[in-house]
């Protein structure tokens, strides 16, 4: 019989694999002799699974329940993917929360495989940092005690040297580092930074005091920092991080799209120098390994990154900051469909850490949780630093432009504002949201948009000229004249950034125009180049998608034109109004960041819409109350929870059959379990009904209690197994867009 752990005879490993089965995803494999030395707990390995090779993580070394069909681990992909027990608990939580597999959750946490990295910085020096009476306390761990004694008497050895001197293996040294009895000392020259800090405003002082209070509590705390654009939120972040650092704890700072915000990264590096680690997707494996190692060893105290940096392998986490917490990019599109905000709260709970959620336009869900008695504390920065004015916002009614015979995509006020900037040598930004790729049908004369009578969601135009609701499946054929005003100017609505560029060039020949969207920035580094040219060259107009809505701080920009607020207003999603308010506020915040104040012109066919009016007035609170009453009336989140179940496959008939079977079965489970208040909506074609030759249909589960929904969906997921071989089923708990 094989023996258990340690002692060199760990012959069987329990591996969590990344496979599409629900429920137990860990299986036993034999550890081949040749790999026995190499494989450790949490190693990423490749194993055979139903006829193919898949990746997984070693959870434990123990005996299989059944020796018969046992297979062998094929190879080690990555010996130490920076996982630990705490991150394993986090993965188990994700499994329950997002109805994903444990292997998938671990895969997300560990990130893409770095390989057998050899880049360990062997020269890092270890110093002893034991608590009082540590030696006595280690009476029953003689090896660890020996190491500690050596470290105390002969400081500044590398790990390997220390292990050799004490006559033990590296793991003993590592376990002392984990306990905090030994620390890795920075061998990199530490840059001495003496940045001149601005004197905080009263509001910033107040915010910081609240954050410090929360930190003192040594219990997990969440703070919603609601601050208008330019109110100095980032400065508050920087101070809180310094505080956290002085307590010997690490901070994670998430920003929505790190490659798009070089200015933000620069601010953190200016303040904290090489104590900053940056994690982003375009790093090489070697770079990523080096950064993760610096984080694990405590060399990096400030970790800056996009969504997945929430899984940074910190040793002593004290603070998590989520900037622009309302941003949809914090939710992962692929499995597991986690939200970094929720993961942050969970990690904070594990570490008694503080979470700061910062935004000028908090998500409704978040703001709601920060009101009276909610779990978050609300801290507000209502004014810009130096009391600088917020930009003036002017709304232009495009129906009037049509009435005046102007069929151009630019209204006359926008054209004259642009010419004025060009004359004065100031810069302008033209913004066009392209996220709404689904085609909606709109009347250019009266502004009427075709909507589902049941769901109040814009209907989507399909190829067969039918309009469909992708929440409930309602459908009609596309009208030829406007049902409201009878005009024939009713049609699919769509204009792209390229069109905008052409028009600008026609209107202002010789003007220096730059365009920033997915097409012009596909090459690595091109994003930065375009920005630099626009800023430092004599750029006059920058045209862009949501890419330019965030974080840009260009003092010479005094005009922002929103080419069409309707694109986001009419996305077929119950969050359309919220997205519009957020986008308008955010792009408006790009104007007038310097001495001169800024102007914003918003073009729309729906000038009375409350999301546009409240954005004009910089009035989040009014927006919040109005939108909450809409959500309440239709019972959308935060008054309910949703789970979206997406079916996709090559054959539409198969996809629909699967969706129908699921619909029936879900209803059956609801009845069986006697869970009340759970609705099953659909099946309906998904918002994008076909991607890459695969048809997409969806069901939506709606109910008041998230755990009820998850129970219903989870039960069926397990029962369904792989019933429909040709259809992929994908679950999204609390989807951000449907
Ligand atoms: P936000 O993150 O809320 O948009 P920032 O932190 O970027 O605001 O601050 C806006 C501008 O004001 C930045 O240029 C920043 O350097 C500056 N700033 C922030 N706090 C202060 C302060 N207390 N005194 C002077 N300038 C400040
Ligand atoms: Zn009309
Ligand atoms: Zn509907």
TrEMBL record:
CDD domains listed in its UniProt record: DEXHc_priA, SF2_C_priA
GO molecular function, one term: 3'-5' DNA helicase activity
Helicase C-terminal domain: residues covered: 475-634
GO terms classed as biological process: DNA recombination; DNA replication initiation; DNA replication, synthesis of primer; double-strand break repair
Lineage of source species: Bacteria, Bacillati, Bacillota, Clostridia, Eubacteriales
Residue numbers binding Zn(2+) 2: 452, 455, 469, 472
Organism: Desulforamulus aquiferis
Name of a matching Pfam family: Zn_ribbon_PriA
Function text: Initiates the restart of stalled replication forks, which reloads the replicative helicase on sites other than the origin of replication. Recognizes and binds to abandoned replication forks and remodels them to uncover a helicase loading site. Promotes assembly of the primosome at these replication forks.
Keyword Cytoplasm annotated: no
Annotated ranges, domain Helicase ATP-binding: 214-380
Catalytic activities: ATP + H2O = ADP + phosphate + H(+); Couples ATP hydrolysis with the unwinding of duplex DNA by translocating in the 3'-5' direction
Keywords, ordered alphabetically: ATP-binding, DNA replication, DNA-binding, Helicase, Hydrolase, Isomerase, Metal-binding, Nucleotide-binding, Primosome, Zinc
Cofactor-binding details, from the entry: Binds 2 zinc ions per subunit.
Family under the similarity heading: Belongs to the helicase family. PriA subfamily.
Cofactor(s) of this protein: Zn(2+)
Protein name per Swiss-Prot or TrEMBL: Replication restart protein PriA
Enzyme class: isomerase
SMART domains documented for this protein: DEXDc, HELICc
Binding site for Zn(2+) 1: 443, 446, 482, 485
InterPro entries cross-referenced by the UniProt entry: DEAD/DEAH_box_helicase_dom, Helicase_ATP-bd, Helicase_C-like, P-loop_NTPase, PriA, PriA_3primeBD, PriA_3primeBD_sf, PriA_C
């Amino acid at each position: 019989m094989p023996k258990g752990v340690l002692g060199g005879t760990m012959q069987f490993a329990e591996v969590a694999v990344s496979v599409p089965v629900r429920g137990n995803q860990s299986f036993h494999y034999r550890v081949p002799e040749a790999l026995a030395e190499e494989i450790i707990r949490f190693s990423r390995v490749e194993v055979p699974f139903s006829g193919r090779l898949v990746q997984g993580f070693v959870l434990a070394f123990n005996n299989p329940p059944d020796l018969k069909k046992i297979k062998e681990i094929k190879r080690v992909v990555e010996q130490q993917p920076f996982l630990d027990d705490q991150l394993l608990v986090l993965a188990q939580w994700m499994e329950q929360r997002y109805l994903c597999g444990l292997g998938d959750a671990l895969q997300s946490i560990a990130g893409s495989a770095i390989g057998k990295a050899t880049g360990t910085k062997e020269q890092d020096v270890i110093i002893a940092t034991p608590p009082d009476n540590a030696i006595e306390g280690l009476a029953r761990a003689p090896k660890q005690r020996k190491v500690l004694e050596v470290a105390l008497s002969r400081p500044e050895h590398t790990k390997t040297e220390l292990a050799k001197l004490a006559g033990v293996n590296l793991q003993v040294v590592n376990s002392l580092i984990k306990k905090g009895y030994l620390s890795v000392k920075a061998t990199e020259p530490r840059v001495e930074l003496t940045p001149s800090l601005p004197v905080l405003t009263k509001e910033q002082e107040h915010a910081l005091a609240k954050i410090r209070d929360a930190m003192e509590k040594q219990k997990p705390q969440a703070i919603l920092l609601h601050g208008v654009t330019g109110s100095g939120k980032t400065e508050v972040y920087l101070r809180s991080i310094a505080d956290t650092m002085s307590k010997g704890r690490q901070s994670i700072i998430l920003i929505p799209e790190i490659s798009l915000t070089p200015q933000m990264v620069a601010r953190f590096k200016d303040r904290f120098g090489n104590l900053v680690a940056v994690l982003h997707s375009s790093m090489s494996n070697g770079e990523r390994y080096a950064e993760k190692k610096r984080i694990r060893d405590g060399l990096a105290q400030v970790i800056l990154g996009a969504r997945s940096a929430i899984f940074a392998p910190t040793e002593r986490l004290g603070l998590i900051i989520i900037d622009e917490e309302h941003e949809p990019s914090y939710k992962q599109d692929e499995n597991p469909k986690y939200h970094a905000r929720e993961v942050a709260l969970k990690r904070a709970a594990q570490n008694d850490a503080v979470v700061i959620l910062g935004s000028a336009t908090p998500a409704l869900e978040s703001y709601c949780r920060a009101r009276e008695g909610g779990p978050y504390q609300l801290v507000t920065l209502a004014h810009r630093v130096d009391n600088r004015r917020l930009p003036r916002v002017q709304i232009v009614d495009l129906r009037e432009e049509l009435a005046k015979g102007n069929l151009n995509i630019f209204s006359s006020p926008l054209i004259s504002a642009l010419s004025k900037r060009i004359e004065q040598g100031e810069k302008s930004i033209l913004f066009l949201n392209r996220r709404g790729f689904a085609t909606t049908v709109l009347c250019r004369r009266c502004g009427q948009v075709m909507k589902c009578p049941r769901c109040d969601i814009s209907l989507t135009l399909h190829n067969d000229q039918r309009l469909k609701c992708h929440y409930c499946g309602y459908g009609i054929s596309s009208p030829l004249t406007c049902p409201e005003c009878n005009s024939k100017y009713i049609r699919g609505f769509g204009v792209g950034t390229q069109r905008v560029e052409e028009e600008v060039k026609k209107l202002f020949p010789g003007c220096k125009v730059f365009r920033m969207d997915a097409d012009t920035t596909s090459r690595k580094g091109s994003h930065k180049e375009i920005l630099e040219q626009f800023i430092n060259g004599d750029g006059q107009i920058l045209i862009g998608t949501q890419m330019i809505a965030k974080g840009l701080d260009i003092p010479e920009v005094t005009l922002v034109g929103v080419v069409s607020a309707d694109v986001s207003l009419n996305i077929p999603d119950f969050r359309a109004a919220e997205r519009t308010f957020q986008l308008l506020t955010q792009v408006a915040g790009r104007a007038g960041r310097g001495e001169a104040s800024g102007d914003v012109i918003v073009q729309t066919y729906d000038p009375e819409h409350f999301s546009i009016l409240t954005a004009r007035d910089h009035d989040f609170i009014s927006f919040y109350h109005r939108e909450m009453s809409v959500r309440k009336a239709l019972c959308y989140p935060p008054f309910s929870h949703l789970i979206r179940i997406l079916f996709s496959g090559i054959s539409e008939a198969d996809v629909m059959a699967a969706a129908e079977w699921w619909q029936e079965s879900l209803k059956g489970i609801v009845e069986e379990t006697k869970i009340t208040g759970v609705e099953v909506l659909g099946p309906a074609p998904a918002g994008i009904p076909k991607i890459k030759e695969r048809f997409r249909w969806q069901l939506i589960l709606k109910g008041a209690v998230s755990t009820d929904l998850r129970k219903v969906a989870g039960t069926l997921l397990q029962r369904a197994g792989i019933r429909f071989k040709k259809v992929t089923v994908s679950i999204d708990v609390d989807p951000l867009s449907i």
